[in-house]
Amino acid sequence: MTTRNSTPNSVRIVSLFPELLGVGGVQEAGRQTAAALDEIASAKSWATSFLSLNDPIGLQSFGVDERKISLHGFGRSKLRFVYSVMGQALKNTTLVLAAHPNLALPASWMKHFSPGLKMVVMSHGIEVWQPLSSRRRIALCAADLVLAPSRDTAQKLANVQGVSREKVLRLAWPVSSNFLRWANAPGDLPLPEKFPRGQVVLTVGRWAASERYKGADKLISAVASLRKNFPDLHLVAVGGGDDLPRLQKQVSELSVVERVHFLEGISRQELAACYAHADVFALPSTGEGFGIVFLEAMAFRKPIVGAARGGATDLIREGVNGLLVPPHDPEQLAQALDRLLRDGRLRAEMGLRGGEIVRREYGFEAFRSGLENILAECGLDSGLPA
Q: What distance in Å separates the CA atoms of residue 91 and residue 347, rounded to the nearest whole number?
């Protein structure tokens, strides 16, 4: 069922998501959030409803670990979505959680029709780096609390969007428990057939023209410059998108067709196997609000390389679990990769430290506990709005 039942007058949480069944960091963060809410609500006999704008119409479900979670999708129909959201405002809802700043507006409409309703908005990163439209910004600032996964995103919420600093709380996304289990026993993971032999730099992302900030082209240039020093070096780029033709053209022009491998449509277990068999993970993105893929690489005890900008600076501790390079600088990127590829001991040490960090600080239990504390700040621990 989409809604978990509760006794009369108990807590009822409605959560609005842009998408839960798709691929990407926002979707993965949404799934982890839904799983945490479902677990908290189950323990406290609260009611929950999960509404997802862009997922297929009707009742859908997905699994996180052993937990099956149901949602109601709206097939990208904004009209149907808003109609359902407004109906939720009339059902004694205690709190609405908007899992993206763009959904703050319908959440604020719920709050308007139910003034006692608490409103929490989750942000991710680059979507709040530039001023939102006035309506969306007003709705965002009307929230009781706004959550940010990194210090950089928290600063952007205050400095760019004008959200009161007292309302902004940091809640880092967790690594998937499945990834941690797979990382602890990687031997049986299915490796994609096209995964190359030799030294491998792995990158993972959505290669879309609208997201060129992820820096796949910079990685291709870096690998091309290193090919003479590392005869068996390969770059594996996992993900699809409408920017692939441009990247493939760049690969051809640099004569590294045999060195760069694009893997599309692989399973999560196959992706996990890619992490397990890579030597270095790199994503020189200049637009990450956080970067769950860094956590996934850390789970597999791989050293990570990223641009010194955005949320990556929370996750990559220079010289500890990876290396930070200046944004938009293929030469410095190549030097960082060169350093790691030459030094197996350094790779192992950084990988081990990263594995320790992710298990200590970014597990699901820490995330669930943090979210439960945030709900308590809204007065939900007593079952009554604060």
A: 54
Closest CA to 40 of 371, 385, 378, 382: 371
66 φ, ψ to 5°? -90, 0
pLDDT of residue 381: 66
Q: CB neighbours (10 Å) of residue 177?
A: 17
The 10s digit of each residue's pLDDT in 173-188 is 999 998 999 999 999 8
Please state, as a whole number, how many other Cβ atoms lie within 10 Å of the Cβ of residue 360. Answer: 9
- What gap in Å lies between CA 330 and CA 336, rounded to an integer? 10
pTM for the model:
0.90
69 pLDDT more than 80: yes
pLDDT of 384 strictly over 70: no
Amino acid at 380: L
What are the pLDDT digits (tens) for 326-362? 999 999 999 999 999 999 999 999 999 999 999 999 9
Strand partners, 203: 237
> Which domains are present in the chain?
3-174+363-377 (3.40.50.2000), 177-361 (3.40.50.2000)
Q: How far apart are the first and last CA of the chain?
A: 29
For residues 376 and 383, what is the distance between their CA atoms, to the nearest angstrom? 9
